[in-house]
Write a structure and sequence with these properties.
The chain is 30% helix and 31% strand. It is of the alpha+beta class. An eight-stranded mixed beta sheet has the order 1-2-3-4-5-6-8-7, with helices on both faces. It is globular, with a radius of gyration of 16 Å.
């Protein structure tokens, strides 16, 4: 396994990112059940009874060296509040995508997402020396598109009819990225937002 696909533990002031394991299944079942999160039509969030299979899928891809999956634990309550992953790992460049991310509704707009992204981006750019980090989301996922843009990522384009969703609809995928020279400004903005309480 390449270093870039190794989900090392990462800890901030609000969250701890833990290498994903089946021990996180119970916590993640509660996350996706909260507010029927898994019923959001434009995302691929597992239903509570599909969490174990989703964990195994991510772990299999980790063993293949193409993803690095984490569970997200909030430090104020100690509860698992979501999951996130390095995807499309390219150790030869290197570059990667941050995605397959979801949080419990109660964890949203708390600064948890901002700090999670700060930790993941710092590892990507500072430890792994990535040249670029990509983000992808559904055209109709306006909250995700807004959150990605607020990170300082720039929209690269839209891949029309890029994927088939579980309900059979076709997904237009919006692609964003941050390149290495932009990282210092993105880092400064994230730190500023977190110092002021963070809103996401």
């Amino acid at each position: 396994m390449s270093e870039i696909a190794d989900p090392v533990p990462l800890t901030g002031e609000r969250v701890a990112l833990e290498p994903l394991s089946h021990a996180h299944a119970e916590g993640l079942r509660a996350v996706v059940a909260e507010g029927d999160l898994h019923r959001t039509w434009y995302t691929r969030i597992p239903a509570p009874d599909g969490v174990d299979a989703e964990i195994e899928r991510r772990l299999r891809l980790q063993r293949e060296g193409v993803v690095a999956p984490w569970a997200v634990r909030r430090l104020d309550t100690g509860a698992v509040c979501g999951a996130t992953t390095y995807l499309n790992v390219r150790a030869d460049l290197p570059r990667l995508e941050i995605g397959s991310t979801f949080y419990a509704p109660s964890a949203q707009r708390t600064g948890i997402n901002a700090e999670t992204k700060l930790l993941l981006l710092a590892r990507a750019f500072e430890d792994l020396r990535c040249i670029a980090v990509e983000f992808r989301t559904h055209w109709h996922n306006l909250p995700s598109r807004t959150a990605i843009a607020r990170l300082g990522a720039r929209q690269d384009g839209v891949l029309r009819h890029h994927e088939v969703m579980p309900d059979g609809s076709l997904r237009d995928t919006v692609v964003f990225s941050i390149v290495a020279p932009e990282w210092p400004a993105v880092r400064a903005d994230l730190r500023h937002r977190l110092a002021r309480g963070g809103s996401r």
